[in-house]
Amino acid sequence: MLLALRRIEKRFGGVVALRDGNLAVEAGKVHLLLGENGAGKSTLMKIVAGMIQPDGGEVIWQGRPVRFRRPSEAAAAGIAMVHQESLLAPHLTVAENIFLGRAPAAAMGFVRRRRMLEMAESLIEEHRFPLQASWRVERLSPAGKQLVEICRAIQRGSSLLVFDEPTSSLSEAETREVFRIVRALRDRGVGTVYITHRMEELRAVGDQVTILRDGATVHSGDLAAISNDEIIRHMVGREVTAIYSRTPYPPGEELLRVEGLNAGVLLRDIGFHVRAGEIVGLAGLVGAGRTELCRALFGLDPIHSGEIRIRGRQARIRSPRDAVKAGLALIPEDRQKHGLATLLPVAQNLTMANLPAVSPNGILQRSAERRAFAQYAERLRIRAESPRQIAARLSGGTQQKVVIAKWLFRGARVLLFDEPTRGIDVGAKREVFELMDGLAADGAGILMVSSEIPELLQVADRLVVMRQGRISGELPRGANQEDLLRHAMVGESAP
Questions:
Q1: Cα torsion angle, 195, 201, 204, 206, sign
Q2: pLDDT in tens, 299-334
Q3: Residues 215 and 358 in one domain
């Protein structure tokens, strides 16, 4: 037994994050840690990694009670954590991040940079990652950053690795590589805690499973002894059937039309439209250009040519300010980095895109800010301690709702959802889809990017498929997964 957690408790102000957290991890086993957003999974693992301190309970590491007061103590003991949101130093290279704090040194303490690069390249080559040791991390995709995190954890030679949603930003091929690494580590006797919301991943890597609900452990045992339906029932406390099933609304006026759009280094001759009351799914493989299209429409990447019309009027979008004025909103893939000011209170995050509404005569009125928070907290079921709670302390699903509420308060009519359910559990996914459905019912137009094909097939009214920076086809509601993948992989002309 590597790790045992007994009756762990943790509070943040008046919010109870953990009230009875229990977990037992064996060497040479992959232990799945499951639960809805806000169930306490990440909090429990941050206690193990020395990032936060428990208010009660006991941590047993290799048979001895311990209390890690900082991450360096946990790392020295043999515990490494691969975080869902990157904690890398973006201005440093891949090699420098892998060996951060552990760089090979020569006499007088100087870093042996050539040796460090060689060691990093050897590690990258061993695991066949699409990385270069000399690349700067700030230029990497979310998938690339996740791979660097994994390399860093492996390099430390840890006895216990904690993976917090390691594949949430990875392609199918990269995900298979992560599975291979996890299995190889298991075969070498390393213990692994693996947090995921992807049900299809469970049987690929897991040996044992612990499920949290509302800060307490509600099930623990061998994975082979429990079905996926039982797992979901434990997670949400009720039966859950399909992810979501919606009845389409008759489409209204055309809200967005894109014709002949060329943007960035990838997008070529893009054309599509979105009408009021529609959810249009934007499908494609990783690297097809879906996120790049959202960024271009929102003014984050330069548009070289083409036309964008919003409610029939031509829009010249050169910056996010232009996009917001035109009625566009972007709910980004990385909500913490691009969607929120995580160190500000939730009420300020909610109102920052529409400050005039809470600042008559240019003077901010806290009472108006609180009223706006109360309105949208009730409408979107935002679970926050108070309007003053710092956004960084919210669960992932609640953070996503705050980003959406920000744009609803602004009055946006065309919403670009880029991977809206990334890192969100089954129950929270339904809440997000219910919210999107309600927006469509109110006359909004939605463009939804998702790597989860079942989600697109169940939620979207029609599908626009991208391949290599171009539109490769359009599919109606009711299309099957084979049709979508054929357009995404080989184009519209495929037999």
A1: positive
A2: 999 999 999 999 999 999 999 999 999 999 999 888
A3: no
